[in-house]
Amino acid sequence: MRLEDLGYNFNFEKFRKDNDLIDFETGRVIAEHKERYIVKTTKGEFEAEITGNLRFTAKSRADFPAVGDWVCLTTYESDFAIIHRIFPRFSIIKRQAVGQYGEIQIIATNIDYAFIVQAVDRDFNINRLERYLTICNSSGVSPLIILSKTDLISQPQTSAIVENIKARIKNVPVIAISNETQAGYDAINAIIEKGKTYCMLGSSGVGKSTLLNNLSCKTIMRTDTISQSTNKGRHVTSHRELIILESGGLLVDNPGMREVGIADSDKGLEITFDKIMSLSQNCRFKDCTHTNEKGCSVLEAVGKGELDEASYENYLKMEREKTHFESTVAERRKKERIFGKIMKDYQKRDIKQKGQ
After folding, report:
1. How far apart are CA 353 and CA 39, in angstroms?
2. Domain check: are 145 and 197 in the same one?
3. Residue 41 bridge partners (DSSP)
4. Neighbouring-strand partners of residue 266
């Protein structure tokens, strides 16, 4: 296998040469298990750990390797390796870390396209679709909406859902599929390119693992049926893993996400809600919050039915969430700077006292 088959390109090679990393092996992280990583190279797969220096210099979990990362490493005959450095990432899919205020969780890196999967029978929710779109847009990843389990509803119902999405979300492809009959799979396979990396996003039980198994033409991820008592999918995928498909594309499967917290700092909301952004240019006040101001073009559009009210409400909710997250990050960083100054002063006093 060549590195190019794993998505390696000119920019990664340039970084390797410019930073004098020629003497190290190059590989891609294809799985992560509690700070132990599986890295695929031209020599095979290696279980790897990071160096102490990489751990010590990491400012947050975002500085640790993640599935999709390119790394330089030293390999050993025992199928073990040490990761020395992470290559710069051209895209990072991330969200707020669950239960950890101000922290970011990296879902996957160096992703070209994201498959946002929702099941039409129970999981369908346009508000959640807009959340996933915002994550993709802030990450620089091209989204594609996949509606699964269409065999459980009628064709007119499926068509109505697709039209409903297209009326609210513009310029994002929508593909309706059935994992049972594999209807719609031709459209997905036509999109997948050799050497490009795709990531699946969605709740548990929407059929992501079955989709992966069908696209790879073999059983990679174990799948369970929907619980009859709760009508919810059972968790099957417990970790992230990058799979090489028969077509040559690369696909990252993810555990189902119950919470999709926005950690947006790269204008993801502005791209997702571009109509609101466009309307806001005509607001009377530059700092308009689009909630109760006179002369607000956004509110006028909602009142006239020119802007979907549910989408507008969803935008306000995510904007508040983004603002809260950013203020939490700023507060945490302030505390870290104060603590760092205290420690630095303490060390200075300690050195001075020892010199007396």
Report:
1. 48
2. yes
3. 44
4. none
Instruction: State the Cα torsion 54-59-62-63 to the nearest 10°.
Output: -20
The candidate with the shortest Cα–Cα distance to 259, out of 315, 203, 311, is: 203
Do 159 and 124 sit in the same domain of this protein? yes
Q: Which domain holds residue 234?
A: 102-253
Q: Is residue 70 packed enough to be buried (19+ CB in 10 Å), middle (13-18) or exposed (0-12)? A: buried
Which pTM does this prediction carry?
0.81
Give percent of the chain above pLDDT 70.
82
Residues 204 and 244 in one domain: yes
Name the token pair of 196.
Answer: 């490009």
- Between 309-355 and 126-139, two packed helices, what is the crossing angle to 10 degrees? 50
Query: CB-based contacts of 58: which residues, under 8 Å, 6+ apart?
Result: 64
Phi-psi region of 184 (alpha: psi -120 to 50; beta: other; left: phi over 0): left
pLDDT single digits (tens) 27-51: 999 999 877 999 999 999 999 999 9
Q: How far apart are CA 341 and CA 346, in angstroms?
A: 8
Is the distance from CB of 241 to CB of 253 less than 8 angstroms?
yes
Rounded CA gap, 170 and 311, in Å? 12
pLDDT tens digit sequence for 105-145:
889 999 999 999 999 987 788 999 999 999 999 888 999 99
Q: How many residues does the chain have?
A: 356
Q: Is residue 229 part of a domain?
A: yes
